[in-house]
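Researcher: Next sequence.
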Amino acid sequence: MSSKRIVSVQNLNKTFVNQANETITALKDINFEINSQEFVSIIGPSGCGKSTLLRIVSQLETYNSGNIEYFTDGPIADNIGFVFQESVLFPWKSVYKNAIFPLKVKNMMTDAHLQYVDHLLKTTGLEKFKNALPKELSGGMKQRVSIVRSLSYSPQLLLMDEPFGALDAITRDTLNLELARISREEKMTVVFVTHDIDEAVFLSSKVIVMSPPRRN
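Model: Next structure:
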């Protein structure tokens, strides 16, 4: 496994004020590094800041203090993929058009990227559903499309926020097996948020355990 650093989080802190005007410490003195080809799970109880941390690393949310260093090749926005808890697909676009949407936005519609999307659709079992609309897909298939879309531009880091949490146990286990295989074959670097310890242990080369937030 390569030891190249992808992200370094140093003394990260995040607070917010709730409806009762109480200051809540969501994240306090968080420190960790993500290296190339690692599969890192972040676990902890609901409300402990797992999703907040992931959104901060992806630059979707700000933080109060600390530092995050990125060691990606090229712009950060082109090197981070994000899979949300819900599939968030365009309902009027086919599987294929959803999958290539980031390539259009990023002006990366090259033969190499389009061939890679075809490869991902095949390896995730979606090749025969390229022309299907999201409403014709099961929940598990929708999340497969989300994964393909997030990998379409070959990001160096894939962030996943409880992507299988809303699925039934059998589908969830199937997708965990697929994700483990794909991450290994594609040499992916993944940060995966979950509250399921067994899922984290099965998938991960490293586990980060988080505690509940505190009122100041």
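Model: Strands lie at 5-17, 23-35, 39-43, 65-70, 80-83, 157-161, 190-193, 206-209, 214-215. The chain has a mean pLDDT of 91.
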